[in-house]
Amino acid sequence: MLAFVRQNSPWLMAGMLMTFSSSFGQTFFVALYGGEIRAEFGLSNGDFGGLYLLGTLGSAALMVFVGKIVDFYSPRQVGSVALLGLVAACVAMASAGSLPLLVFAIFMLRFFGQGMMSHIALTAMGRWFDATRGKAVSISNTGHQIGEAVLPLTVVLLLAVLDWRSAWLIFAAAILLLTIPALWLLLGRDRVPQNTSPIHHSVPIRQWTRNEMIRDPLFWIASFGYLSPPFIGTSIFFHQIYMVEMKGWELSWFASGFSIYAVVTLIFGLVTGYCVDRFSARALLPFFLFPLAAALLVLGVFDSPWSIPFVFVLLGLNGGGFSTLFGSLWPEIYGVKHLGEIRSLIMALMVFASALGPGVIGWLIDYGIALETQFLAMAAYCIVISGVLFGVSKAYIARRADETDLARQEASTI
Fold first, then answer.
1. Structural domains of the chain in order of their starting residue, each with its CATH number
2. 216 pLDDT band (50/70/90 cuts)?
3. pLDDT tens, 309-329?
4. 3-class SS letters over the chain
5. pLDDT of 202 over the 70 cut
């Protein structure tokens, strides 16, 4: 692992930098300002969730059309432009004086932050690496964990001495003056993958287009699984202020849990990367939702503040497995030739799920459905879908075996 990092440090660090930068558009970060925003604009939980839904839906729709740009331009070029857009998004958030402007700022944060920065980083990892794709994706994803470990407490400290709008301007300046120049320097040259992987990881025999993937039933069945963490995890973090108040916790207790979450996610992400390279992402697919189900059960049953670290450990296990697994799964199944186009649709669906969750959960709260009841219902869903994913995994593995056998037969006749 150390030798791998040394040999590929510029590209891995660029991936980490981009995934870290996505934090500014992630729900866990935006939701830290939720109390101040709801108070200033006079919004209920459902109202704020609805506005967040509108902005995120716009981001998801745009991702479908713009995301494929990474098939035509380098990560250095696209990443730099996306970071400039993220700077503008932070400034827009700081200056939003009306509800339409607030929705527009949320849209920009979600598109340039959560959407494009993650999309560019993971598409680059999928193209740059083959035999070591699992390790590359897991290391790149540590930028997410660093953001989750550092930024929540940073925001709490900033809000103790500054108003929430000034805090956004500080982050805008940091991205402009530090992140963009660093990315430009790291990506001075592109990486050419070395295809030395075993058959279950090598570039697929068939290079799928997005339209072909859309007609694949397995893709849509699997979506009931991979869209669950964006829907559920985003809902938990978006409504964290309400949940903390409801359970009688201190916000600082909950915010400190993000450090636990980040460490566990980082470690388990690396473990998952090794397992992906060893067994394939297809084989690991059925297992990633079990920790999320357990976290939801804890949140649904216990109110003690001592449950906070257990929740974050379980969420970290899910987060580390999910990010690495699905960063590797799509190029493994559908190929890398049209990966930007394919991932743009997948990212749009994930952004849509992350938008739908806070809105639905917020409206259910407004209608009197207890948050604990919702957590228990989501836990049951995760368990049921995990059973479905066992069948999907077997079907993906069988399809690859059939493709391999056909390729060998064709080769023997030449």
1. 10-189+199-408 (1.20.1250.20)
2. very high
3. 999 999 989 988 887 888 778
4. CHHHHHHCHHHHHHHHHHHHHHHHHCHHHHHHHHHHHHHHHCCCHHHHHHHHHHHHHHHHHHHHHHHHHHHCCCHHHHHHHHHHHHHHHHHHHHHCCCHHHHHHHHHHHHHHHHHHHHHHHHHHHHHHCCCCHHHHHHHHCHHHHHHHHHHHHHHHHHHHHCCHHHHHHHHHHHHHHHHHHHHHHHCCCCCCCCCCCCCCCCCCCCCCCHHHHHCCHHHHHHHHHHCHHHHHHHHHHHCHHHHHHHHCCCHHHHHHHHHHHHHHHHHHHHHHHHHHHHHCHHHHHHHCCHHHHHHHHHHHHCCCCCHHHHHHHHHHHHHHHHHHHHHHHHHHHHCCCCHHHHHHHHHHHHHHHHHHHHHHHHHHHHCCCCHHHHHHHHHHHHHHHHHHHHHHHHHHHHHHHHHHHHHHHHHHCC
5. no
